[in-house]
Input
Amino acid sequence: MSYQPFSSTLTDQQGSVLAGGTVTVYESGTTTAATIYDADGGSVISGSVVTSGTDGSFIFWIDDTEYAVTKRFRVVLGGTGFTSRTIDDIVIMIGDGDVTLTGSQTLTNKTLTAPVIADFTNMAHDHGDADDGGNTLLIPTIASFANAAHDHADAAGGGE
Output
């Protein structure tokens, strides 16, 4: 036997917490009271009615040997000065191993290529004798240190 909890906070239509409100649990789509418990392994709650605490919170437990994982429930919410409302088809996750996700992915004809940052195998190779077709090949300079020793010590406000 494994018990699964369902907890929430009871609020009115304006979102204010409803202390001392009632939560009655039925099997979905019926007026058949669901069997609910007051704690994990606890006692059956008479009439399937739970009362919300001062903070509006409530909790009840479902025994996973009594209901299938696909079972849905109906909850009727009520309280003093509160218009009753019914919520149908509530799913309560029952059991630890009831949901199994299985998946796989097949990669076919996929090639993973590491990028080549630089290839210097033909670094000394040139096309000096090739027909340039009227084009001129410019080789960029990466860094220039022509003025590396230059300073502004004699300039107004410089050298400091």
